[in-house]
Amino acid sequence: MSDNVQKNARSMKVMSAFYLLLVGASLVLIHSSYYEPAVSYVLFYLAASVAVTAFVAMILLPEEQFSNGFSGAMCILLAASVAMMTFFSGGLSSELYLLFLPLLMAAALHGSRQVGIVALVSVLFCYSMAILPGLLNAGVDTAGTAPLVFYRLGVLLLVGVFVLFSSGAAGGSSKARDDDDAAEDRRGGDDDDGATLARMVEDELKQRRGVQVAVVIVDPGRDVGDVDTLLERVRARISTPVLLSEGAVFGFVLSGANDREVESAARRALAAASSLGASETRAGAAIYPRDARNANDLLTAAGQALEAAFEVESKSAIVISGGDTPREKRYRAAR
């Protein structure tokens, strides 16, 4: 589940809980002696029950459900429910139009401009429909009430536009940070001593006990055109790469792979480098627990296999470490 969906879910659930309190306060308000507009209580209760059902459902739904499309649809439903509550509690004279304002904050809560636009359009349309019968009533002094109508519509519009611009700016900066973080992840933070790669290996060893874990270190040479593109291709097709200290050398981890699968992954990494203009490509690999018993030793074995790959007289070579004891390792080259 993506972070965006989780953020949408949290914002919608918080908004739903807040709206439950507002609906409760609205019930108290319309029964007080200070509330003057006429109220159709039965119809108001029906509209309020629809809103309460929607709010409770959103609180109980799993987070995976809250995509942008679902969140937008719920904003439309909530705007319609609030509009009905407004209409049946006095329509043009109702003070419950204020219940539209928290709905406009949906975009600011989860930073989705698309959901914010849906919420704003829904609020303006539904509120207009709630007060339209009162405006068309011949007994209503439309000349006297027009300024109040335009004022309320203007407030809702300005709040919605403000939220849209605010959420757009926050979303842009968040997206820029996410892109920078993703680029940093792809490059592995320029892992000078292999610490990041070693931590990845340790995590795999802890999570997948009893399963073979392989480390592949790739040297695409000096002629590779775009290192970031190469790392992105390896990330998409093979595994998450970690850029090591010198040049474009990088490594990645494979779990549950045998020699043939490790060799295939290394071949695909070299092929990706060759497609970007690389020449003299080399790769070395080592497999736990055959070649080493811990993460650091496994990286050392993979590095030794990479060194052995440079001894192979070929434009491209893959060497997989292997042997019964650490001191008596044998290497085989796959050209």
Describe this structure in words.
This protein has 335 residues and is α+β, with helices and mostly antiparallel strands. It folds into two domains: 183 residues; 140 residues, Alpha-Beta Plaits (2-Layer Sandwich). Helices cover 61% and strands 11% of the residues. The chain has eleven helices and six strands. A hairpin with a 5-residue loop joins strand 5 and strand 6. It starts with a helix and ends with a strand.
Would you summarize the structure shown here?
With 335 residues, this protein is of the alpha+beta class. Helix content is 61%, strand content 11%. It has 2 domains: 3-185; 195-334, Reverse transcriptase/Diguanylate cyclase domain (Alpha-Beta Plaits), CATH 3.30.70.270.
List the helices and strands and how they pair.
Elements: H1 3-30, H2 41-60, H3 68-88, H4 100-104, H5 106-110, H6 113-136, H7 142-187, H8 195-207, E1 213-219, H9 227-237, E2 242-243, E3 250-255, H10 259-275, E4 281-288, H11 295-309, E5 316-323, E6 329-334
Parallel strand pairs: 4-5
Antiparallel strand pairs: 1-3, 1-4, 2-3, 5-6
Helix pairs in contact: 1-2, 2-3, 3-6, 6-7, 9-10
